[in-house]
Amino acid sequence: MKNIWTIAYRDFRSYFTSPIAYILIAGFLAIMGWMFFFNLSYFNLQNLQAMQMNIGKGISITDGIVRPLYGNMNVIFLFLVPFITMRLLAEERKNATIQLLLTAPVTLTEIILGKFLSSFLLVLTMLGLTAVYPLVLVWTGNPDLGPIALSYLGTALLVGCYLSFGLLFSAMTENQIVAGALTFAFGLFFWLINWASQSVGSTWGDVLNYMSLINHFNQFSQGVLNSTDVIFYLSFIGLGLFLTHRVLDSFRWR
Amino acid sequence: MIKIQNLTKRYGPRTAIDNLCFEVGRGEIVGFLGPNGAGKSTTMKIITAFMPATEGTVTVAGYDVFDSPIEVKKNIGFLPETPPVYTEMSVQDYLRFAAQLHGVEKSKLDGAVQEAIEKTGLGDVRRRLIGNLSKGYRQRVGIAQALAHRPQVLILDEPTVGLDPKQIIEIRKLIKSLAGEHTIVLSTHILPEVTATCDRVIVINKGRIAAQDTLDRLTSRIQHGRVYSLAVKNPSAEGIAAIKAIPGIKSVTDAAHATDKKLTVEIAPEAGELRDRITETAVSHRMGLLEFVAEKLSLEEVFLQLTTEENL
Hints:
The complex is a heterodimer of chains A (about 250) and B (about 300). Chain A is an all-alpha fold. Chain A has 12 helices and no strands.
C-alpha cells in the first residue's frame, strides 16, 4: 500500500512539474466553462419562453443543465484521457526508467495501481475544479443534488475505464503517440459500440447495448444508482489493469 | 554473498548463458568481463530478479532469487546500462523516491539521501533537475540511486560507459571506495576498468565462464611461455646468437630504442629457469646489460586469448 502511494505520488507530481497538467486543466476548464455558460443561458431562455407562453412548469435544472453538462464533460474526457495516460509507461520504457521500478522491491500490481492512481488523482483534481458549477446552481437556484452527485460518481467511473485501458496501451509500446491514438480509438469504439445494436438482432443488440460505456452513464445522470452499472465500470477498470499486469509481466520472459 | 549454481538461460532455441557457476564473497569487487553479447547483462538481470532463469539457482544474501524476489531486491542496488533517472526531477527528490521505493523508512529517509549524496559527491547539484546535468553527473546519480537504501550488494552494468576520462577516473575511485561496505559486481567490456577497480575477474564468453581468478594469477596462468625483455648498450650479433643458442629459447628479437637496444627473449613453456644463463651470456659477451624485466601480458591480451581460443 505504501509502495502504491510512493509511485502514485511521484507520477502525480510529475504531471505538475511538466506543463501537461496545466495545459490539460486549463483547456478542460475553458471548454467546460463555455459549455456551462451556454447551458445556463439556453436554460434561462427556454424557461422564460415557457413562462411567457404559459405552457407548464418549463424544464428542470437537472434536465436543462446538469445532464447535458456532465454528458458533454464525458465527451471531453474521451479526448483528454489519451494525453493523461499515454506517457505513464511508454515514457518509462523509452527512458529505461522502468528498470528502476522492476528491480525495486515492489510487486507489479503495486506499480500498476500506483500508475493508475496517479492518473485518477489528476482526473479527480479536474473534476474537483468543476464543483464551481453546482455551487453556482445551488447559489442561484434549487437544483436536485442527487443527479449531480451521481454524475460525478459516474464520470469518475467512466473515465476510470478510459484510464485503465490507456495504461494498458501505454504498457504495450514505447511510442507515446501510438499509445495515445490507441486509447482514443478504443474509447471511441466502446462509446459507439451500441450503434450497431439495431441491426444485429435482439440478443446481440442487448449485448452491445450493455457493453457501451455511455449507456451505463445515462442512469447516473438521471439520479439512479444501479449496482449493475457500478459493477460494469469496476470490472471494465479491473480488466484493463489485469491486462496491463500481463503485458508488464511478459517483459520478464523476453 | 552471491551464489550462482548451474545457471542457464535460453531465449527460445538460443542459449544466452550456459551452466554458469560462481560465488562472490562479502565485500569483494568482482569484474564481469566479456565481449558484447556474451551474456553479462542477462546474468545481471537474473541476479537482480528482473527475469527468471531457465535452470539453476541464484541466491543473494541468503535469499533465493526465484522464491523470494522481493527480499533479494531489497538487498541489491542496481545500476542498469542507462541510468534510470527521471529527467524532470531534482537530484534529491529522485534519490528520495528511489530510497522510498526500496523500503527505507520515513524517519531514515533524509539520512539515507544525504549519505548517498555525500558518497557520490553530488552536494553541489542536489537541487538541480537531473535533465540539466551532464552525462557524468547523471551516472553518479544512477550510482547514488543504487546506494541510497544501503544494499549489501551492488550490481553495476557498465558504470563508466560514455564518460570522459576524468569522469571515468572519478567513478572508478568512487567504486573502489564503496568496496568493503558493499559487495560489488561490475560488468564491463573495457579492460583497464577491471585492472583499476576489481579484486577478481570473471571472464565470460558465449554464455560460459572462460576464466575466473585474481588478476595476477589470470595473467600468469594464461602466459604460455615466458617473455623477458633486456635493455642492452651493445647488442652484438654474436651475443644475440649466443643467447639464441641456449636450449629452451624460442626466439630473440631486437628492436631499436632511443638510447639503448631492446631484446625480447621468448622462452618455450617446457623450459626450466633460464634467467641466470641469459644474463651470464649477455654479460660474458660484453653486451652491457642495463635492464632485465619479466614481461607480463596485459589484460587486453589475456582477454583476447581467453575469448578467441577454444581450449585453455
